[in-house]
Design a protein that fits this description.
single chain, 83 residues, mainly alpha, 0% strand
């Protein structure tokens, strides 16, 4: 199994001897692992790179959002108003 297969399947990578460190065997899924533990649902701050990626993603998808709003949502709402 290659490193990319281990990442894709979510299985921990093993060393050359085939042993897996104990830290890699702990469960890292569920709500505690996602928000930092303790059962709190605090939002984490976005890093600069994540903010830039979010802005770029919204910029690239904005023509589709505008097109759907203008050609699908507006006529649908307007037809209900006329009816």
């Amino acid at each position: 199994m290659s490193a990319s297969d281990a990442v894709a399947t979510g299985t921990p990578r093993t060393g050359s001897s085939g042993s897996v460190p104990a830290a890699d065997l702990t469960a890292r899924s569920g709500p505690r692992a996602q928000n930092g533990g303790g059962g709190r649902s605090a939002k984490r701050k976005l890093t600069g790179r994540e903010k830039r990626n979010l802005r770029l993603g919204l910029l690239f998808i904005s023509p589709w959002i505008i097109g759907v709003a203008v050609f699908v949502i507006y006529p649908l709402i307007y037809s209900f108003v006329i009816a």
